[in-house]
Amino acid sequence: MATSRIRIPAPLTKGRCVMQKQGYWGYIFTLPFVINVVVFLLFPILFSTYISFTEWDLFNPPRWIGLDNWVRVLNKHEFWVSIRNVFVFALIFVPIQTLMAFVIAFMLNQAIRAKGLFRLFYFLPVVTPWIAGGVVWVWMFNYQYGVINWVLESVGLAPVKWIDSSHWLMVISSIAIVQVWKGVGQSMIMILAGMQNVPKEVLEASQIDGANGWKQLTKVVFPMVTPMVYLVMILSTISAFQAFDVFLGLFGSITTGIPERNMVPNLLVYRDAFLLFKMGPASATAWLLFVIILSFTLFQKYFEKKWVHYD
Amino acid sequence: MTKTTHPLLKVLMYLLLIAGAVFMVFPFIWMLSTSLKTVGAISQMPPQLIPNPLNWDNYVTIWNKVDFGRYTLNSFFIVSIEMVGSLVSSAFVAFGLAMFTFRLRGLIYMIMLATLMIPSQVTMIPTYFIWKEFGALNSYYPLIVPSFLGGAFGIFLMHQFIKSLPKELYESATIDGCSPPGIFFKIYLPLCKPALAALGVFTFMGAWNNTLGPLIYLQDKELYTLPLGLLYLKSENVNQALLMAGAVITTLPVVIVYLFAQKQFVQGIASTGMKG
Q1: pLDDT the model gives residue A254
Q2: What average pLDDT does chain B have?
């Protein structure tokens, strides 16, 4: 121990020199990622932009058609339906998930018994494969034999058509419920981690100052976890706009086609590209979706200052 | 704060927590319950929670109909390779970014952050085209090769961690005549265990639950992963009991892994927010 303490300070400056002289090692170590970026990011971005201006079926050479794909996609009814759906989906899903995650995290941060068990239960859907979650929810949503409608009927309510409803809003809301089931555990763990970082002294001090439970929650705990709540909101917004797995899980064999009224953009991309082999419109749709996600994230960022507190 | 909680409030909290837990867990119970029903019991009203008789034959039928044994092995195979690849490569690249000063370091770091913004659907079609040109469609290469090249999220996570380790470690190892790769593999990689565990959790969940990748790249049924096997079963229009038996088989391995590594899962998720 003593010898090492003597040895380290002396070569310190020499070591720094070595590291700078060994700069080429930096390139060697980062090479895998540079290859990754060039092959799986830079090239795809350029190529995907190019494809969006062509007619291409993946097998024959692409044919340049200018802005046609973009015009066609933007003039299609189904595109706007899919945008409407994904916005409504996000509007239902993000607030419910965030609020639920916050409330559960707050309760699990109190002196509660069986905390570990609750955490285990809430997190279970997060690790469950989407398809498995999807098939069981479809079964529970079943109009005739579904357990949810059975519960409704046994308390004297009328059965509801959930994901088979002819109204898109009902379908989108049902899907949002499933998405909350799948994702709330992860958001809850993140917010809980934020809450556990609130120093005990701060809470005690606020108590001495006479803050009751509610005041403590709104004036002390909430402001201190806003960065985490914000992160959870951003992440769930992005996942809502990119929704795909939940649709695959619920509707399964996409080949048979999901009705236009229930479409979301990512499904359009998948259908156009891998079922219809229309790479042009698929790429244009993907880029449009990217622009929407980006502007929405920037929009949320703009309002960040108004309610998120960093230290 | 705990002492002042009103008893009535506490009762309310328990009720809420239990209601929430039922919402989370009931689908699993229902999955299991339906998977043990006879054809007649599936559509019976009111539904039975504990089926009578318990019909274990569904599992035998489904195991013979769909090669779930093989799909389980396939899933484990892909997931383990992806985990090794992504853990080692992310740490490797992060080590380079954290330890050496070189001219393009800032640029590479910035690109890494930028890649977190690019959604996969934009790059999906060209990537598919690349694998098609390599003749690697219908193989595991498109799923596992990219994981060996380091992902932005993983590199970011590892970079934050390696930066927090004392630099003297590197220097004294250099003095002792260790080469940079040696230093990485012998000293830094073992020290990164906590961060690797967190990244491992994410890689595991992402790889195990990945459906889109296998769906577009794998055609031969022998190559299917578990979720793809279940998707195939769903398209076969089998009865609900058989479908739920398939869902149980698909869910069970990942739940077992989760139960054993619960701590890593929770800490891994919790640590993502901490970087911000």
Answers
A1: 57
A2: 87
Task: Name the region of B178 (left: φ>0; alpha: ψ -120 to 50; beta: rest).
Answer: beta
Q: Are A153 and A147 in contact (CB under 8 A)?
A: no
Amino acid symbol at B191 = L
Measured between alpha carbons, how far is B45 from B42 in angstroms, rounded to an integer?
9
Question: How far is Cα A101 from Cα A17, in angstroms, rounded to an integer?
Answer: 50
ipTM of this predicted structure? 0.88
- Exposure on the CB side of residue B257, measured as CA atoms within 13 A: 19
How does residue A137 score in pLDDT terms, banded at 50, 70 and 90?
very high
Answer whether A29 sits within 8 Å of B23, measured CB to CB.
no
Question: Which chain A residues have a beta carbon less than 8 Å from that of B17?
Answer: 104, 107-108, 112, 118
Task: Say how far residue B181 (Cα) sits from the centre of its chain.
Answer: 28
Full DSSP string of A270-282:
HIIIIIS--HHHH
**A63: helix, strand or coil:** strand
- CA-CA distance, A31 to A4, in Å (whole number)? 34
Query: Please, what sign has the CA dihedral across residues B207, B210, B213, B217?
Result: positive
Alpha-carbon distance of A266 to B261, in angstroms, equals: 33
Helix (H, G, I), strand (E, B) or coil at B1: coil
Distances (CA, A) of A301 to A73, B156, B264: 29, 21, 31
Nearest to A15 among B171, B243, B246 (CB): B171
At A174, the amino acid letter reads: S
The model carries a pTM of 0.87
